Amino acid sequence: MKQLLRILAVFAAVGNFIILIQGAVVTKTGSGEGCGNTWPFCHGEVFPTYQTLELWIEYSHRIVSGMIGLIVVVLTILAWLTYRKHGSVKLFASASLFFILLQGLMGAAAVIWSQSEAVLALHFGLSLLSFASSTLLCIVLFQLKRSGETAVEEKADVSQGLKMGIWGLAVYTYVVVYTGAYVRHMGASLGCSQWPLCGGAWVPDMSTPQGIHLMHRLFAGVLFFLVLGLLFVIYKGYPTRRDLKRGAWFAFTLVLAQVFTGGLIVLTQLELLIALLHTTLIAAFFASLCYLAMQVGLPWKRKDMINR
């Protein structure tokens, strides 16, 4: 049963990643209305008679989301039955289910009823949370396998300041992700046609597409320096914590690549493959921060039990 649970967890994590990429393709290709204003089928038909590229981009996204949703339902049930006393397993399985259902319902609402760009930008964030939850579930399950299905309990040896910093950084990253999704939904991806400058100026009118685009750049720039600071703090203050050093290096490498691909998106005039690579890096980066948050424990608890 536990082996099956691990296999399903891997499928759920990979599936949630595919949903993220498909959602990005739907947005970037303008295929959100490919199936009209009906849901879950296209134009009210299981097998659409009128077919377009936009229709199949949108419909395939719905099909994959539905299939992965069913896998996550089964995964959550098995997780609760198999690991009745392991809070992390139940938490991450339940979170993955909650967020995949919520993003599905929000997607349906966006199709049936028109939604503002600010609301539509939340859709990607919910998919990201589902992906991060299923990824953390995979990590916990394989940690348990490595430790003989017995949780390795240790007192967390990190300061409250580091805990708050890592959790705060994860929350701030979610805000940065939201601003990026907002840029896409507002059609402001080329609001700044140059990089790193914006139309020859550092501070354009923030009510214009230039301003919306620059807002995301500024948020992302701050994020880069925050992650660099986190890497320095962990290496200086916690030289024996290999898990934290590994996670911090992974996060820094990914945020650096994110900045690079963000510039390439502008310089290549929205090259789709570059944009999808940027989305991939965002997902991996956020998951790495969630891993660090899991390893240090909850910030409001002074003693936590963690798996290294």
Would you write up a description of this structure?
This protein has helices spanning about 1-30, 55-80, 85-110, 115-145, 160-185, 210-235, 240-265, 270-295. By secondary structure, the chain is mostly helical. It is built from eight helices and no strands. It has two domains: about 1-150, no CATH class; about 155-308. About 70% of the residues lie in helices and about 0% in strands. It starts with a helix and ends in a 12-residue tail after the last helix. Its EC number is 1.17.99.9.
Features:
about 300 residues; mainly alpha; 2 domains; 8 helices; metal-binding; metal ion binding; HemeA_Synthase_type1
Please outline the helices and strands:
Blueprint (H helix, E strand, L loop, with lengths): L1 H27 L24 H30 L4 H26 L4 H30 L13 H26 L23 H29 L4 H26 L4 H25 L12
* Strand/helix succession: HHHHHHHH
Low-confidence stretches: 303-308
Structural class: mainly alpha
User: What radius of gyration results from the CA coordinates?
Assistant: 20 Å
Strand content: under 5%
The shape is flat
Count of extended strands: 0
Number of helices: 8
Q: Percent range for helical residues? A: over 70%
Major β-sheet annotation: none
Straight-line distance between termini: 24 Å
Average pLDDT confidence is 86
